[in-house]
Amino acid sequence: MNDLQIGQGRALAGRSIWWVGADAAASADPRRELAAGGLACTALTEGEALASLQAGRLGVEGVVVDASVLPRCAGLLRALRATGVPLVLLLDVEDLSVLAEGVGLGVAGVVKPASAQALRAALRLPGGEAVTPEGATFPFRTLGEVASLSLLVAGLSPDPAAVQIALSELMVNAVEHGNLGLGFNRKRELMAAGEWRNEVERLLLLPANAERFAWLRVECRPRELRFLIRDLGAGFDPAPYLDLNAERSVEPYGRGIAIARMLAFPELVFLDGGRCVEGVAKR
């Protein structure tokens, strides 16, 4: 069992990265946003990136790779990973084969459409420290990122529908209860008023929450998939929520952990006072 320890990571202001992709115009907006935050981006094709690597001209503190280039250049990801710099895969929800390769190499990942905040968070992961060769780590902070990321990684499972729902329940908990601090009673009030999603979106827009990410780590073992989710909250006691009781079984809240256990992760393990949860699914 591995706890997912994510610290502040490396500072990014004043640094430079490569952005490797087939279409520089398509990545102009996120690169511009990163540059506005002090992170200079050089757009390269896969061929230019390989040529620079072979010539020993890396000279950057991180690399973002659009996964769409990898089927045409299979060795690029491994060559970049061997440099030891933080490597971030930019993935579509259909990029399962590239995801599996990334998990094996221990990269960070972001699902399109990628925000500048998510890219910065992924690039802060120190190469070879928080990310290891046996898993991939993904930052997330919004409900949209929960939906796309859970859909992508659940595709590694033989029962993707069940795993996607289970992951989504746990990841939403990390966002709303962990990072945003919404308590059970407050959520009940918001759900009754039909205002839960609006309140979550409002809280996410607050400057204090702009860089407040949760993290999903995916590890592929010979017979199992391990998923670890960590948030930055105050923690909680999960014991009352492990099983459905008569009251919560008919309510639209307070059931996420029990649903995750029933659908995909019967042996959920909570770590660090409830701030990290590990679920295991068979392969």
From TrEMBL:
GO terms for molecular function: ATP binding. Residues 159-264 form the Histidine kinase/HSP90-like ATPase domain. The keyword Protein biosynthesis does not apply. Keywords: ATP-binding, Nucleotide-binding. The keyword Nucleotide-binding applies. Transmembrane segments: none annotated. This is ATP-binding protein. It comes from Zoogloea dura.
